[in-house]
């Protein structure tokens, strides 16, 4: 599994170049794109197409080659294989057949974008591409809305405006977004703004809608999160009036507290509240 440049053809490791030069076959998502990369680095390699439409069939011949003692490198058009790109099915089949899979690290658009976004050190969730249809996209976003982390998405140019509109509509227009486009290329651009302003910024210049996009939405404080910090007080009040299990259930529903933590704390509080006998 060989990671390849996401734009600038110089962004490839010596190990990756040497591997591509030495393997018996290079399984490429688009042989034309990979051929340009090989030519740039003066590497001669045997190319065969492996993409999302033939990945299952391709796994068969890759396993056959490995069984014959041959070596195969799998690459996608850009970045790390199997990360929002073909490759995972081949890896699973190769491993199931008893052969070794070796990852050769390199460029990844999400990590590249995050490194230049200036978002404070915090957890992030890589969600990849959202569904192409608005209704399904909004449903997917709703499931992510309350997560306490930075959300990272990929998006294609022809859907970028409607995508950020849906993100603003579901996650909240007051939240921030970092839009990164054309990373490592000539017209690389990173823009910070409120989600409320993102669609207008993209529409203001047609060139801003070109290229592949990484969208990063940092976590933001919300009324629910404020309530979460005070769930123990809520739990204590409810325990004075309700059975333990009911008090825990209501506390979790009202504040977003984790059930396990609330239940353990409830047991401690209930023990302290037991009447003493003389």
Written overview of the protein:
By secondary structure, the chain is of the alpha/beta class. The chain has 3 domains: 14-96, 3-Layer(aba) Sandwich (Cobalt-precorrin-4 Transmethylase, domain 1); 109-220, Methyltransferase, Cobalt-precorrin-4 Transmethylase, Domain 2 (2-Layer Sandwich); 224-273. The chain is built from 12 helices and 8 strands. The protein has helices spanning 14-22, 31-40, 55-67, 88-96, 109-115, 134-144, 160-171, 195-203, 223-228, 231-239, 244-255, 259-273, and strands at 25-28, 47-49, 72-75, 124-129, 150-155, 176-181, 189-194, 213-217. A 5-stranded mixed beta sheet has the order 4-5-8-6-7. A 3-stranded parallel beta sheet has the order 2-1-3, with helices on both faces. Helix 7 packs antiparallel against helix 8 (195-203) and helix 10 (231-239) runs antiparallel to helix 11. The longest helix has 15 residues, at 259-273. The radius of gyration is 25 Å and the shape is globular. The protein starts with 13 loop residues before the first helix and ends in a 5-residue tail after the last helix.
């Amino acid at each position: 599994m060989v990671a390849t440049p996401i734009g600038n053809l110089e962004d490839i490791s010596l190990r990756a170049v040497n591997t591509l030069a030495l393997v018996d076959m290079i399984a490429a998502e688009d042989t034309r794109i990979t051929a340009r990369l090989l030519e740039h680095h003066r590497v001669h390699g045997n190319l065969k197409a492996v993409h999302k439409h033939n990945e299952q069939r391709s796994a068969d011949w890759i396993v056959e080659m490995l069984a014959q003692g041959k070596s195969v490198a799998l690459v996608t058009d850009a970045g790390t294989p199997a990360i929002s790109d073909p490759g995972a099915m081949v890896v699973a089949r190769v491993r199931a057949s008893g052969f070794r899979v070796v990852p050769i690290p390199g460029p990844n658009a999400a990590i590249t974008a995050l490194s230049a976004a200036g978002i404070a050190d915090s957890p992030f969730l890589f969600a990849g591409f959202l569904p192409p249809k608005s209704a399904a996209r909004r449903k997917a976003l709703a499931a992510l809305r309350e997560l306490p982390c930075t959300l990272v998405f990929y998006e294609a140019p022809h859907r970028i405006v409607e995508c950020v509109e849906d993100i603003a509509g579901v996650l909240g227009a007051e939240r921030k977004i970092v839009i990164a486009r054309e990373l490592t290329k000539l017209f690389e651009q990173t823009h910070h703004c409120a989600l409320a302003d993102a669609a207008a910024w993209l529409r203001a210049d047609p060139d801003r809608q070109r290229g592949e996009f990484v969208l990063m939405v940092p976590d933001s404080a919300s009324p629910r999160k404020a309530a979460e910090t005070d769930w123990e007080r809520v739990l204590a009040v409810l325990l004075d009036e309700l059975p333990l299990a009911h008090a825990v259930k209501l506390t979790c529903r009202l504040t977003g507290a984790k059930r396990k933590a609330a239940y353990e704390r409830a047991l401690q509080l209930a023990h302290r509240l037991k009447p003493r006998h003389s």
